[in-house]
Design goal:
The protein is an all-alpha fold and about 325 residues long. It is built from 15 helices and two strands. Helix 1 runs antiparallel to helix 15, helix 4 runs parallel beside helix 8 and helix 8 runs antiparallel to helix 11. Keywords: Cell membrane, Membrane, Transmembrane, Transmembrane helix, Transport.
């Protein structure tokens, strides 16, 4: 006579664990986890308070008549989109926008090329040379902007500057040449300064990415006859592509909003109307002309322009996140 040893329904077999309860459809009921959202909530509130309030205030101000009288308590008058119409009906605004975008793209491209080159140099050199280069880059990066601009203004000073002295001693006619008077030479000097201040961040970020490239992959490629350029283009760049993307995005945002370097160079004797970029143009509208409503309208436009320039990378991030 055989004995049925099957366990009763609803009990776990010996040595096993109870099967998870499932719905009648056979699918496991999803569990909601609120802990990650609760941990993100404080940071989200801080960002909204710190960033959303100024943006909303500028948006409201850009639709009002807000000048010096309103600064002393007069009630602002609502003009809605009249400030935007006036601002973008002025050809000067579009010249400033074009000048700023071209300078931004040029500065970001040069910074990326020089920064990647220095990162590759740090990886290829010995430890002593690498440490020396890293310390030099760190000092350049840590120098306050105003202090650095004091040195750069002396270097390009038209009366007793170092650049003019060197070029004159080489027999070139640069004695008393004013680099900041003409817009082309002005932006050439500004480009050098902005790149010099931005390269350390790119170099350190890219070098950190290069340290994560597997050495055995590069050795195998070298044994297969791949040249250094092929290894860089086909192996290294695809691996560190996410780092290059975010660094390039940050450079575009920072270079589009550059202000201090341009303003301090303008104060040395250049014509502001010919060398204004978005940051200094907003300053001239607000502080210079006491038209804070127009300055707010231009600030909102710069925000939208920054989003437009960076949207391609943000969309790519969203796409990669959805695929993963």
């Amino acid at each position: 006579m055989s004995v049925d040893t099957a366990p009763p329904a609803g009990t776990a077999p010996l040595g096993g664990t109870a099967a998870p309860e499932r719905e009648s459809t056979g699918r496991r009921k999803p569990r909601r986890r609120f802990a990650p959202y609760m941990l993100l909530l404080p940071a989200t509130i801080i960002v909204l308070v710190a960033m959303a309030y100024p943006v909303i205030w500028q948006l409201i101000t850009s639709m009002q008549k807000f000048g010096l009288a309103q600064q002393f308590g007069a009630a602002p008058e609502w003009v809605w989109f009249e400030n935007y119409v006036t601002l973008f009906s002025n050809p000067t605004t579009w010249f400033v926008v074009l000048r700023s975008v071209l300078f931004c793209l040029a500065a970001a491209a040069v910074t990326m090329v020089v920064g990647i080159g220095l990162a590759l140099l740090m990886q290829a050199t010995s430890k002593g040379v690498r440490l020396t280069l890293q310390i030099a880059l760190l000092l350049a990066w840590a120098t306050p902007v105003v202090a650095a601009m004091t040195i750069w203004n002396w270097i390009f000073d038209w009366r007793r500057g170092l650049v003019n002295w060197l070029l004159t001693n080489l027999g070139l006619p640069f004695n008393g040449h004013n680099w900041l008077q003409e817009p082309l030479s002005f932006f050439a000097v500004a480009l050098i300064i902005v790149v010099w201040m931005s390269v350390p961040f790119v170099a350190f970020s890219v070098y950190a990415g290069l340290t994560q490239v597997p050495g055995e992959v590069l050795e195998a490629a070298q044994m297969d006859g791949a040249s250094p350029w092929q290894r860089l283009r086909l192996i290294i760049v695809p691996i560190i592509k996410p780092i290059l993307g975010i660094v390039m995005l940050l450079q575009i945002i920072w270079d589009l909003r550059v202000f201090t370097q341009i303003k301090l160079l303008q104060d040395r004797g250049s014509i502001a109307s010919k060398t204004d970029v978005l940051g200094t143009y907003i300053y001239q509208l607000g502080v210079g002309s006491s038209d804070f409503a127009m300055a707010s309208a231009m600030s909102i436009f710069v925000l939208l322009l920054t989003i437009a320039l960076s949207w391609a990378y943000v969309r790519n991030l969203i796409k990669e996140d959805d695929e993963s």
